[in-house]
Structure to design on (774 residues):
């Protein structure tokens, strides 16, 4: 017994020692860049020399972008690392939005965080820990992405430079199915409605429906429906009313919003139009947004309104191109001349004012970074807010299409409204209200409910 | 991952019960327990147990089958239809989950989890058994009040301690996001229950043992290491498994105190991130869940006897 026991103690302490040693070793080698094998481009290092000698310094970046999308991001930092000798430690987490406030309050904030919503930026600025952007970064933003600047500004101070961008005003469809049935891509809202009716008339048995949708998304269930309302609101009420609505200068139950919601209802709550491949209207609430557009592939649904990033949801091997299995067209406006574009993006907020952090912020807002991002882009989703970036460097067809939408001269860009509204509404009652609306609540009750929840 | 414990437990309990009932003397006057025992071992009861076990295991089986199906199959049909197309079964999900693109492979995360788990299991067991010894066999003023206070700490949910603890680690102790933060946090969160469980087990040991040792000239240290620790093995092993499963499956504590960089993050963090930024690769989750499950299941199956015995240790006082 005694011997046995001694051996056990020895085994335990041995295991502990091994673990401690392993920890000591592995904590030494840092996160580092784990990018692709491609040679990093040479860039002009002069803008970063002004920040002094940064050799051997480290900047930590915390984002909501995880593998496999993180690889191209990490690779796009290499020219900066080569220039300055700074090491960028990248960390992506899907729990980003919950973890960031914890870390900031606990005094363990990252140097730079990519905030996916301007609303979150406001919350973070309210903690007093966000450092305003350096003048070099602001100059870059003024030159490269003036449209986005206001979204990175809180109470007149410019904090966060825009980074990536995505376009939400897209309708996914199957070009081959459209060609087989002789359908044309609609260019006005009236044509879109006519096309939907034609699809219904062509398929009297209801096996093929014009639209499919799904708004289930875990604890964020409802957000795809809010995008619908925002997109339609931009079309029926115009950009100025949209801004007034987002800033609560008009109430949430204003007639203009009611009109937009009714227009959305004519599609999403029309049992003849939805829900292709899944069933009746109510299945929209239980279908996950990742799965929602998949019936396009087997032909039981013909159109699915979702952002450019939905491209990542097609199964591997799907031909995503203008004449392939799936492609996207611009969600038409009332007339063919108007071009309102709904979009989203990330913003780089800094929680430290060390020179290497400022230098990196400046790099991320530069044309060089945007071009490098396009060059190292892996699976798509590499569109940046930078209007001076070279669009020809984008390789992914959907990225090209998105960049065209963003840089179109006639385009009126508006940021996703639910991301701009106060969190209680934009990430709360708006989602919940739209979910209730899908499963049967009427328009008025829905809008009144959201309006009553707006924080005064 | 949490399906693991419930799936195993009912079967084990049933089996354990059946084992004990068989040992009971049969025949003669049927006591109430004897009656209960025979009704437990009746074929109907066994059938019920089997049905419950099957129902309980079904989701896990579904997950297992799903993990071998291709992406399109997973997205388009339920796992129960897999027999219509057995040729569609593939190891692709496991291949992708094990080597996810550009970031570090799963093996690095496995090592991290082991590095986190071992000290986070050994430390609380060691400290708690020392504390339990003091509470059980060393009379000192205020002992009972202190013990109740320690026990009451179990009521405090760990979530409210996260931010203050992080603040202490980062600003007062200077650990930052290091393994020390996670080891200490897991130890702190485990100590109340561990102390309580081991204390109750220790109290049940006969006091004569300690007295006899003391007469022979043994001090507290000798008594603890030479007499109590060997006797405590079942309780320590039971709590060890408990703590091991908890730490192995933990996501919250490591996310908060350690972060998600590949050089330190445990496998749970990787599995949580497996589905990609917008959840487009969720079909990989079933494979990821099974990869991370392998070790706890092995440990559990190897030590389940201790587990059941230890669960009863603290609760039943003779």
């Amino acid at each position: 017994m005694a011997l046995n026991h001694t051996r056990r103690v020895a085994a335990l302490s041995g295991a502990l020692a091994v673990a401690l040693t392993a920890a000591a070793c592995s904590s030494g080698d840092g996160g580092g860049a784990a990018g692709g094998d491609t040679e990093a481009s040479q860039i002009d290092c002069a803008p970063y020399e002004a920040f002094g000698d940064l050799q051997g310094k480290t900047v930590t970046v915390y984002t909501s972008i995880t593998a496999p999308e993180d690889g191209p991001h990490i690779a796009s930092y290499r020219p900066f690392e080569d220039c300055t000798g700074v090491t960028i430690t990248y960390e992506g987490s899907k729990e980003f939005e919950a973890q960031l406030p914890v870390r900031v309050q606990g005094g363990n904030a990252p140097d730079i965080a990519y905030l996916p919503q301007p609303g979150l930026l406001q919350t973070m600025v309210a903690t007093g820990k966000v450092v305003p952007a350096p003048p070099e970064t602001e100059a870059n933003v003024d030159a490269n992405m003036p449209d986005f600047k206001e979204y990175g500004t809180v109470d007149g101070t410019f904090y966060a430079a825009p980074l990536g961008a995505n376009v939400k005003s897209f309708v996914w469809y199957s070009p081959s199915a459209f060609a087989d049935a002789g359908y044309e891509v609609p260019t006005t809202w009236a044509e879109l409605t006519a096309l939907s009716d034609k699809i219904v008339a062509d398929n009297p048995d209801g096996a093929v429906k014009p639209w499919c949708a799904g708004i289930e998304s875990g604890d964020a269930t409802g957000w795809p429906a809010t995008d619908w309302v925002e997109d339609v609101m931009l079309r029926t009420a115009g950009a100025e009313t949209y801004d007034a609505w987002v800033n609560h200068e008009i109430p949430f139950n204003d007639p203009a919003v009611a009109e937009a919601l009714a227009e959305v209802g004519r599609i999403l709550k029309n049992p003849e139009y939805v829900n292709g491949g899944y069933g009746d209207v109510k299945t929209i609430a239980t279908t996950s947004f990742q799965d929602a557009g998949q019936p396009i592939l087997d032909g039981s649904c013909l159109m699915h309104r979702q952002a450019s990033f939905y491209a990542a949801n097609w199964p591997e091997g799907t031909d995503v191109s203008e004449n392939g299995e799936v492609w996207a067209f611009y969600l038409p406006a009332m007339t063919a001349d108007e071009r309102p574009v709904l979009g989203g993006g990330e913003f780089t907020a800094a929680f430290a004012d060390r020179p290497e952090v400022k230098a990196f912020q400046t790099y991320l807002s530069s044309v060089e970074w945007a071009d490098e991002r396009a060059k190292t882009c892996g699976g798509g989703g590499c569109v940046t807010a930078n209007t001076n970036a070279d669009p020809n460097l984008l390789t992914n067809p959907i990225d090209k299409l998105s960049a065209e939408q963003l840089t179109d001269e006639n385009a009126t860009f508006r940021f996703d409204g639910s991301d701009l509204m106060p969190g209680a509404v934009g990430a709360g009652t708006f989602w919940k209200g739209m979910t209730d609306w899908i499963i049967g609540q009427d328009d008025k009750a829905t809008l009144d409910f959201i309006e009553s929840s707006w924080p005064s | 991952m949490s399906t693991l414990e419930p799936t195993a437990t009912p079967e084990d309990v049933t089996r354990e019960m059946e084992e004990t009932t068989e040992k009971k003397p049969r025949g003669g006057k049927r006591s109430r327990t004897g009656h209960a025992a025979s009704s437990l071992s009746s074929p109907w009861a066994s059938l019920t147990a089997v049905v419950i076990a099957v129902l309980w295991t079904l989701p896990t089986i579904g997950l297992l089958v799903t993990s071998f199906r291709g992406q399109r199959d997973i997205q388009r049909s339920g796992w129960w239809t897999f027999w219509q197309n057995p040729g569609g079964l593939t190891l692709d999900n496991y291949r992708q989950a094990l080597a996810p693109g550009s970031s570090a492979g799963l093996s690095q995360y496995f090592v991290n989890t082991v590095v986190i788990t071992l000290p986070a299991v050994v430390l609380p067991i060691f400290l708690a058994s020392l504390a339990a010894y003091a509470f059980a066999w060393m009379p000192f003023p205020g002992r009972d009040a202190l013990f109740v206070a320690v026990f009451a700490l179990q009521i405090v949910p760990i979530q409210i301690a996260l931010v203050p603890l992080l603040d202490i680690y980062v600003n007062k102790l200077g650990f930052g996001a290091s393994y020390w933060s996670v080891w200490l946090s897991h130890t702190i969160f485990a100590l109340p229950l561990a102390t309580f469980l081991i204390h109750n087990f220790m109290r049940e040991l006969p006091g004569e043992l300690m007295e006899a040792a003391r007469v022979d000239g043994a001090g507290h240290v000798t008594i603890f290491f030479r007499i109590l620790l060997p006797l405590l093995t079942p309780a320590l092993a039971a709590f060890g498994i408990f703590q091991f499963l908890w730490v192995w499956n933990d996501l919250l504590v490591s996310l908060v105190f350690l972060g998600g960089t590949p050089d330190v993050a445990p496998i749970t963090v990787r599995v949580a991130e497996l589905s990609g930024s917008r959840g487009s690769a969720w079909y990989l989750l079933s494979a990821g869940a099974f990869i991370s499950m392998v070790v706890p299941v092995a440990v559990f199956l190897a030590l389940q006897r201790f587990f059941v015995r230890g669960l009863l240790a603290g609760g039943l006082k003779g």
